[in-house]
Amino acid sequence: MMELTKLALLLSFLASVTLGQGSVRSRNLSDRSKRVAFQTFTDSQTTGVTEWTSWFNIDHPGGNGDYERLEAIRFYYRERVCVRPTAMEARTTDWVAAADTGEVVHSSLEKGFWCINKEQPHGRICSNYHVRFQCPPVQSYWTDWSEWGPCSTTVCNDVGVQVRQRKCVSAQPMPLLFVPACQGHHSERKECSNPPCTAKWSPWGLWGTCSATCGGGRRTRRRTCVKTSATVHCKGRPVEVQKCGKSPCPAKCQRVCMEGRPNEDCSVCVCDGHELHGDVQSVTGFPIAGASVALASHPKVIRAHTDSKGQFRLAGVCSSSSSLITIRKDKFVPVNVSTSSNATGESWMRAVLRSAEKPYIVKHPEDKVRYEGGRVLLCCTATGSPAPDKYYWYHNGTLLDKKLYKYEEDLILRDLKQEQSGEYYCKASSPAGSIKSTPSLLTVIAKETPACNSTPESHLIRLPMDCVQPGTASKYYNAGRCPHNNCAGSLDFDMRCRDGAGFCCGVQKMESQIIDCGDYKLPIRAVTQCSCQKCIQPTVLVRGRVVAADNDEPLRFGHIYIGKGRVGTTGYQGGFTLKITSDTQRLVVNFVDPTQTFIDTPKVFIFDKKSGSIYHNVKVMRKQTAIDINAGETNFIDLGDIKGEDPIGQLVIPPNSFHKDSGETYEGTVKASVTFIDPRNITTAAAAPGDLNFVDDEGDMLPLRTYGMFSVDFRDETNKEVLGAGAVQVLLDTQHVKMQEHIPKMKLWSLNPDTGVWEEESDFSYSTTTAGGHGRSKREERTFLIGNMEIRERRLFNLDVPENRRCYVKVRAYMSEKFLPSEQLEGVVISLINLEPKPGYSSNPRAWGRFDSVLTGPNGACLPAFCDAMKPDAYTAYVTAMLGGEELEAAPSSPKMNPNVIGVTQPYLDKLDYQRCDHNDPAQKKTAFRINLAKPNQNNFDETNGPIYPYQNLLGCENAPVDANHFRFFRVEKDKYEYNVVPFEENDLTTWTRDYLSWWPNPQEFRACYIKVKIHGQKELMVRSRNLGGTHPETRGQLYGIRDIRSTRDMREANTSAACVEFKCGGMLFDQAEVDRSLISLIPQGNCRRISVNGLLQEYLIKHPPVAHNNESHAFTMLAPVDPLGHNYGIYTVTDQNPRVAKEIAIGRCFDGTSDGFSREMKSDYGVAVTFICPERKINRESLFQRLQTNPGQTLSQMARDMREMEGVQVQRSSTQVVAYPSEQQGRTQSRRVSSTTRRRASMRAQQRQ
Fold first, then answer.
1. Is a pLDDT exceeding 80 seen at residue 103?
2. φ, ψ dihedrals at 267, nearest 5°
3. Pairing mode, if any, of strands 347-353 and 269-282?
4. pLDDT digit string (tens) for 794-805?
């Protein structure tokens, strides 16, 4: 007993000491929390000492904001947070208290901490916060009160009791001696009462039917008494009677029929024993079975259906008068047709049904800027069969009230307010479906507010490599620029669909400034003031080349269609150029081969309205060789002929299914060509027609994932007439569907060649059947998906499923492998091929499923792709980049993976498994890379910064900073530098400035000039062209710009290289008043001497005075020729509506040394203008640095002796005459003297030693 007493006293003493220390610690923490805590909440029912938890950060400020929910923290960290925290502290990851950030935030000890992006002022986004909580390590507390229990009485108008309870619990198991008891009661009671007893009538029921339709009748309605006690009753009657049918009964039918009698409702005359014979066909003459037939006066009453021959009979239709008949069929446009009669008493009719086409927007609303109080017209026009009959307008995603705004196709907004700014789009609907337009941006500027910010924004231009500004190490100079956004100008009429002359923020004033480069001065024209001016509208061109997907054979003289109209023809090499109107939003081009060697291929082209010209390398599929089949038999045609693999599916054509355009059944031999675009062959991905998108019922364009496409061509053996086919079955072998969830969603689609959109043909049914046919050695039983279709006007079909697991991939293109943010390339076509999510084929383990292309802008490109959150390698992608027909090189992945070069940080890079094509085989091309499309985990910080973004976060991808994760491409070219006195961005033609010193004098036509310089020497050298005004009085002697380019080695000739140097073309300036022959100086940057000049060029320059003096042998000077000389002169001139295209073509010709060729391999023997010899300087003795490395002791001793001797020489010559030299010359003279004296003394010492 004594021992137990001592033990209790000891435990009590230890507890008091612990609690005392805890109190001191609690006070210290409390004092600290007053200084740094964002919000502190205390709980009066918690006892004991307290301590802070670790910091928690489970969310990042992407999406809607930053949410540090207490419930989520407990889910991830379980027991690390107490049940009832007493206080909370929030800080940013930069250790700034939440109260000091100036952001609007929220907090609660029950819910946690959160910050919402849209609540932040000035468009800011929330910081990244982490939080911690203050918890008592030992605590006893009451749980939350339970809900109040039911009232103890259920009788109306009675009083009872309600009870609620709580429990006293401890958060941590400890001896009872250390657990303070909870204060208070564990239960509470309160009085409750039930409402008074009531009796109320229920609402009246519906009126019953009238006892008579005319002449007077009665109808009744009833209600029920609802009461809470039998002691109360409802007042009133449960039944109510009303008179009805008061209209007088009509007289007998007054219709007079010349033939027959009136029908029961007296609406038409019917003739018993008479029949109407009808014939319903498609546009191609194919009979349409299953069409419904009704009288136009009663369209909902179906009177007959067409049979398999498209014919029907309708009894009771009189032949003496014409009747209007309505014909309807799914996927066809309904039609009303009048009957015809003859003297025999028979009636007949013939109806032609056109295929229904979903609506398609042909005129989209355009971006507009207006002042507050003004008005605006937004237009939207759609086509389709039948034509759209309903239009809906939306503002920022909200449907506008049609009664309030009174709109149809066009939306008119008057007395504009600033809150009406935002995105507007329309939705057009018809019985065939809906379509949404692209959104237009309406900007409403407050009155008295400048339409354009007059202060230019910062724009850094790179200076020449030898330009070093004194006092700074910067290689850049701020020349300023005006943001080329739309502004509100003075319109002659503001109620046009498209403003007659758009206004943009442009250059109002420029000033000439001088950049001090140390050794020389560099002039520049800097922007100092901006204003609202008429926009520069560059000519938008789409160029490219159409070649075969298998061997790059060009499509020669192919026909080019946009919509129904033919707009051009491809050239002998397959090239084409299309001029696009400025209001084009979606460009669908159909390439048709008149020789029928290739299948007709519709393509959806992306284009850039700013850069003017985009190049597309178009692939088309070679048409499959036709086979002979008997139209009277069942025919099987395989889909897919990969060697060693089973076909993906089959076409099954029943006997007597072929028909001519007249509708006549064709009997005989059919020349059948079915070309299958097999996803197991990745080389066919670029030949996919359309853009693999469909429009859903809401009008949104969504992506498809293909399992194969096929083009059909059936022709009469004798006269090659195109044949149609009905009731064709499409069998898809389910063994090729690697994702089982795709099987129930699989559909058969056909391509609308005018819109480039895939439209649904039919669903598939799941069945087991026997397959066989051409090319199969045996018939076997397999599981197939079976779809049905009719081959009418459309000849391109697709086996696709909609896929909703989507992401965006961020890609940027750069001028060089230095990956400088200021050297990003715009107008680069980035293409992404989605590959099969699961390995399954020996020929191509990951077959492709989708092909997308996107154009890079000033902040790169975001490519849509399929991705998966569960398996990182479920989906993979193959990505390429092309600029003007040139493939760009991807960042390397071998011999060592470098995240700084690839642009993606670890460990996310390993998860994506980035590999360039030459990763395992150096012989492969370097122009593509492959990645896993792992959907980012938003709870993992390493995956929230790109390069893959969730589909809902497109805005985050488009606005991602340049230092965020992204994949990279770069141009493979020699060191090149371009400097313009008047800054201009060739990838944005709207940056052109009207100035005499502009390198390009005309923004609608760009002329690129190059001269070929040959270098004899062991090294590749930089060659500079310095371009001055020559003969124009406004520019004479003033600098236009500088061009530097490194010569390219001629691989066929030793010690020889050549450079294609750009120079300022001679010709009219922007005022078109007088010609300026620019003064061009070519200077190789080395120990070079000019040895020859092209004879024809020299003769031309002499015959076209004035002639520039060429007194210096280390350079070449000329006045730029005005005529477009060719390769015989060593001058290469190309004129185009896009500067980059003109330069690319001119460089290709210069490399090739011809006036019409193209090469990327330098041929220094052809088409040369000037030749220099640049020998290397031989080193006769070691430099001081080399001697210090080889023998430092002896070198330092010798330097000390030389310095002493030089001091003695200076004392002896102090009385001689002083001759003034320039500093450099004096230094060289003294150096020669000292060196000579040193050599003489060294020689004397050597002789003495000998």
1. yes
2. -90, -35
3. parallel
4. 767 777 677 777
CB 807 within 8 A of CB 863: no
CA dist 729 and 1139 (Å) reads 52
* Bridge partners, 889 (sequence order): 970
Q: Is the dihedral of CA 518, 523, 528, 531 positive or negative?
A: negative
All CATH 2.60.40.10 domain ranges in the chain, comma separated: 358-445
Torsion angle (degrees, nearest 10) of CA 987, 988, 994, 999: 0
Which residues on neighbouring strands pair with residue 63, listed in sequence order?
none
Query: Where, residue-wise, is CATH 2.60.220 in the chain?
Result: 627-770+782-802
Q: The tokens 């991808």 sit on which residue?
A: 957
Q: How far apart, in whole angstroms, are the C-alpha atoms of residue 687 and residue 983?
A: 40
Kindly list the distances between the CA atom of residue 1193 and the CA atoms of 1038, 1199, 1203, 1206, in Å, as whole numbers in the listed order.
Answer: 55, 10, 16, 20
The whole-number average pLDDT for the span 1065-1079 is: 86
Three-class SS of residue 953?
Answer: helix
Q: 33: pLDDT confidence band, cut at 50, 70 and 90?
A: very low
Compare 556 and 994 and report the one with higher pLDDT: 556
For residue 1041, the model assigns a pLDDT of: 92
**3-state SS, residue 525:** strand
Residues 394/481, Cβ–Cβ less than 8 Å: no
Tens-place pLDDT, residues 1110-1139 = 778 889 999 999 888 889 999 999 888 778
Calculate the CA dihedral of residues 1126, 1128, 1131, 1136 and round it to 10 degrees.
Answer: 20
DSSP β-ladder status, 701-716 and 796-802: antiparallel
How high is the pLDDT of residue 1084?
92
Side-chain half-sphere of 260: how many Cα atoms within 13 Å? 22
Q: Is residue 1245 over pLDDT 50?
A: no
Q: Can you give the pLDDT at residue 769?
A: 57
Instruction: Determine the topology of domain 358-445 in CATH.
Output: Immunoglobulin-like (2.60.40)
Tens of pLDDT, residue by residue over 1015-1033, are 999 888 999 999 999 888 8
What backbone phi and psi angles, to 5 degrees, belong to 520? -150, 170
Please tell me the distance from the alpha carbon of residue 1162 to that of residue 1052, in angstroms, as a whole number: 9
- Tell me how crowded residue 83 is: count the other CB atoms within 10 A of its CB: 14
Q: What is the 3-state secondary structure (H, E, C) of 1049-1100?
A: ECCCCCCEEEEEEEECCCEECCCCCCEECCEEEEEECCCCEEEEECHHHHHH
What is the spatial distance between Cα 292 and Cα 353, in angstroms, rounded to a whole number?
12
- What pLDDT is attached to residue 1214? 39
Q: What is the DSSP letter of 811?
A: E
DSSP symbols for 261-299: EE-TTSSSEEEEEEEEEEEEEETTS-B--S-EEEETTST
The matching CATH number, chosen from 1.20.1070.10, 2.60.40.1120, 3.10.450.50, 2.30.180.10, for 261-354 is 2.60.40.1120
In the chain, ranges of CATH 2.60.40.1120 domains: 261-354, 540-620
b/e per residue 1046-1072 (b: at least 16 CB within 10 A)? bbbbbeeeeebbbbbbbbbbbbebbee
3-state secondary structure at position 688: coil
CATH topology for 540-620 is Immunoglobulin-like (2.60.40)
Greater model confidence, 739 or 561: 561
For 14, list phi and psi in degrees, rounded to 5: -65, -40
Residues in contact with 1224: Cβ distance below 8 Å, sequence separation at least 6, in sequence order = none
Residue 17, pLDDT score: 36
User: Mean pLDDT over residues 152-164, rounded?
Assistant: 84
CATH number of this structure's domain 627-770+782-802 = 2.60.220
User: What distance in Å separates the CA atoms of residue 868 and residue 931, rounded to the nearest whole number?
Assistant: 13
- Band the pLDDT of 31: cuts 50, 70, 90: very low
